[in-house]
Amino acid sequence: MANPNENQNQISLELKPEVARGSYSNLAIITHSHSEFIIDFATMLPGLPKAEVGNRIVMTPEHAKRLLAALSDNVQKYEQSFGQIDMGGQQKGTFNLGDFPVGGAKS
Predict the structure, then answer these.
(1) What is the pLDDT of residues 15-43, one digit of tens each?
(2) CB under 8 Å to 43, separation ≥6 — which residues?
(3) Neighbouring-strand partners of residue 57
(4) Model pTM?
(5) Backbone angles phi, psi at 56, to 5 degrees
(6) What does the chain look like in DSSP terms, one character per residue?
């Protein structure tokens, strides 16, 4: 017999082809206000004068915390399957816009 609560945890998603391709990011710039978190995903490549923001995600603090928990859970599962992720001695993998001088983050 099917569990009546089973459908409550399922979400139907549409993944359009242009989104399904994804985009590469090797830099995340995170800032926040009282009511939202903003994550800019950028790509820094050798030979290019500046990083290019490819995607900006805006979310509520509650959803940011849920994302943190989901990423933590998935990194733990990844490391259980494939071994420790080597950070190359880096501890800080993101930058806050407040870390830059005024006018330092240009579009």
Answers:
(1) 999 999 999 999 999 999 999 999 999 99
(2) 23, 24, 25, 26, 27, 51, 52, 54
(3) 39
(4) 0.70
(5) -125, 130
(6) ---TTGGGG-------HHHHT----SEEEEEE-SS-EEEEEEE--TT-SS-EEEEEEEE-HHHHHHHHHHHHHHHHHHHHHH-PPP-TT----EE-GGGSPTT-S--
Tell me the backbone φ, ψ of residue 40, rounded to 5 degrees: -100, 120
d(CA 6, CA 32): 35
Length of the chain, in residues? 107
Q: How far is CA 70 from the centre of its chain?
A: 11
The residues that bridge with 39 in the sheet, in sequence order, are 30, 57
58-61: list long-range contacts, CB under 8 Å, 24+ apart.
60/35, 60/36, 61/32, 61/35, 61/36, 61/37
Q: 5: which 2 tokens?
A: 């609560």
> 9 pairs with which residues across the strands?
none
Q: Which residues of 55-90 are buried (b: 16+ CB within 10 A; e: fewer)?
A: eeeeeeeeebeeeeeeeeeeeeeeeeeeeeeeeeee
